[in-house]
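User: I'm curious whether this sequence folds into something compact or stays loose and floppy. Could you predict its structure so I can see for myself?
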Amino acid sequence: MILNVPGSEPASPICSAKGCRADAVWVLAWNNPKLHTPDRRKTWLACEEHREYLSKFLGVRGFLKDVVLLEDWDSREPLERQEPPQSPEA
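Assistant: Here's the prediction. I'll summarize afterward.
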């Protein structure tokens, strides 16, 4: 089960975009080839509004591997949610 903050009650997953508190709809699976093995997947969660922006951010760096609806994401895979860097557009 995904939690918004450590120790909180189970809640809807939220978007990873800095300052966004919207419900997540998408999982953006990514990998930095300089740091991670090819099969490793890190994830960011995205709401509808931030999916394209976060996808482009990862895509131009060659990190984006997959974009999947949250409801379709394999629940057996742990989410390693990280905050993306802050940017003026987000």
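Summary: The longest strand covers residues 64-69. Residues 48-60 form the longest helix (13 residues).
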